Amino acid sequence: MNDYTAHVDTFALDNLPPRESWPDFINLDRLGYGARLNCAVELLDRAVDERDGDRVVLRAANLEWTYRELQAHANRIARVLITDLGMVTGERVLLRAPNNPWMVACWFGVVKAGGIAVGTMPLLRASELEKILDKARVRLALCDSRLLDELEQAGTRVPGLERVVDFNSGELERLMERHPAGFDPVYTAADDVCMIAFTSGTTGQPKGTMHFHRDVLAVCDTFSREVLKPGPDDLFLGSPPLAFTFGLGGLALFPMHARAATALVEQVAPPDLLAAVAEFRPTILFTSPTAYRVILDLLDDGADISSLRRCVSAGETLPKPTSDAWFERTGLRIIDGIGSTELLHIFISAAGDAIRPGATGVAVPGYEARVIDADGAPVPPGTTGQLAVRGPTGCRYLDDPRQADYVVDGWNLTGDTYLQDEDGYFWFQARSDDMIITAGYNIAGPEVEAALLAHDAVAECAVVASPDVQRGEIVKAFVVLREPEMAGAELVGELQTFVKQTIAPYKYPRAVEFIDALPRTETGKVQRFRLRQRELERQDD
Predict the structure, then answer these.
(1) Could you report the per-residue pLDDT of 456-506, keeping only the tens digit for each?
(2) Which CATH number do you get for residue 204?
(3) How far apart are the first and last CA of the chain?
(4) Which of 4, 15, 249, 473 is the most exposed place for a label (fewest CB within 10 A)?
(5) Would 333 be classed as within a structural domain?
């Protein structure tokens, strides 16, 4: 490795939150990381050094790369960054692409060169990219040739962005041709920042979370190694973007940590994902609860998913009806999990016989979780409260006062309402801002959603609070139908009765609105805050 020196660009170091506002990082000693560490070396170079260089690591349409080939591409990208673009250690590089091998190569090239990768979702618009460019003080960007327009538009309004290099039959490949395949990686520290992950925006203004080299390995050595347990013969496939930490872990970090392979597809709607399962024959699938539900309907057309042995769900809660229906149809229990951008990946989950349908699971080895009251005190089993988590990863926002809201007394407060049962299993109740208080009752929106999803007419739904003069708030359901022509007052009454018969009658939605599609982030999370805002605006009219 190159000799380690202090960061030339100290922006990330200077803008870490004050040390006293960090969460408690526990169990790092068990993971055994040294003071000097480059996670790209551990995941990529070590595979080549240990004679796995000729194993396939990435597959895509008409393309297949081995670990050795990916290493050569990443090395040349690192050389371009340092030699041609003048990148210095600690500098941020924005990455923008669909899920394809070049996105992975760029991520590893940046990190091997001592830079900080700033992944961005392919569908972000110029106004959204501007905020990221400005917040992270980005000078350099590597962008898929097909996605240049919005980034270049954003660059005209953010003076700090000096150079955008396109790839996928673009300038980057031409620059790479000038350089040899070898590269001596920058000898970074385990607690150097290697990536800034921006939250996906379900609650409004995105936040940048800074993660160290050790954090990248920690999620591999906890959830992946202890719960998912992949092997070198596994092939991963999934829908979450690589710019989203759920996707980065599930489609790059975890397979490479196990010396396995990933099939990357750019079109990830459920029908496309199902077609990719048939084409690539993956063994491990990562996608959202909504996608699993849609895929279930598509299986009637004779699709073959028999290659799958593990199915992972995260991003939002997995409703029990979806979990049960998937098991009945496929014989596989979906591995549910809760993670966050702030903690990088999943910290509560369960697999195999340990799965209890409807429960998220137990704390992943290496993490601790508890349910607390408003004063921060643990509550008895069976009592709802805020979820608090700590482990080897945790929240460090980039220059953001909301650090004080997320980290309290050394614990990460995820913004979720949970209860923990006597056996240590965590049962999701609601996002803290999804709890509806109506006529003195506390009603968790996702519980009502799960009841509605059990009705054959409902394809998707989201339940939020709607202002009401008499009750303060009422439960309102926004429903996407499998057959839109069924919408009408008769079906509203039928759904309300169905919910009353499924869960406590007082929880039924007093208002139901049929819509064509739910508002979502690019990562697939339902933006309930938009629906709540819509209801508030209606009250003001």
Answers:
(1) 999 999 999 999 887 889 999 999 999 999 999 999 999 999 999 988 888
(2) 3.40.50.12780
(3) 63
(4) 4
(5) no
